[in-house]
Amino acid sequence: MNNGQERPEQQREKLRQEELKHPASSSQGSNLADLVGGMGWKGTLILLLILLLIAVVVSFIM
User: Fold this and answer.
1) What is the C-alpha to C-alpha distance for residues 12 and 49, in angstroms, rounded to an integer?
2) Of 3, 35, 44, 5, which is closest to residue 52 (Cα–Cα)?
3) DSSP assignment of 18-42, as one string?
4) Could you tell me the pLDDT band of residue 8, with boundaries at 50, 70 and 90?
5) What does the radius of gyration of the chain's CA atoms come to, in whole angstroms?
6) 54 or 37, which is more confident
7) Is 55 a residue whose pLDDT tops 70?
8) Half-sphere exposure of 37 toward its Cβ, with a 13 Å CA cutoff?
9) Could you tell me the CA-to-CA distances from 2 to 6, 9, 10, 37 in Å, in that order?
10) What's the first-to-final CA gap in the chain, in angstroms?
11) pLDDT value of position 29
12) Buried b vs exposed e over 31-62: b needs ≥16 C-beta within 10 Å?
C-alpha cells in the first residue's frame, strides 16, 4: 500500500499543519480570539482600556 503515496490520514494532518501556519488564509479568517491570543496579557489590557476609553468618550458626546 505504501508505494510513495501518503495515506489519507497523513494528507489531512499535513494540510491541517499547513493551515495552522497560515491562519489568515483559512475560510474562517481572523477573529478576536486570534488577536488576543497573539498579543499577550499586556497587549490585551491595553486594547481593553482603549476600547473602554472610546466607549466613555462616545457616551459623553451623545
Assistant:
1) 41
2) 44
3) HHHH-GGGSSS---HHHHHHHHHHH
4) confident
5) 21
6) 54
7) yes
8) 6
9) 7, 13, 12, 40
10) 70
11) 53
12) eeeeeeeeeeeeeeeeeeeeeeeeeeeeeeee
Residue 23 CB neighbour total at 10 angstroms: 13
Could you give the angle at the alpha carbon of 33 between the alpha carbons of 42 and 12, nearest 5°?
Answer: 130
pLDDT of residue 47: 87
Grid cell listed for 7:
495515506
What distance in Å separates the CA atoms of residue 50 and residue 58, rounded to the nearest whole number? Answer: 12
- Residue of 26, 22, 51, 25 lying closest to 36 (CA atoms): 51
Mean pLDDT on 14-28: 70
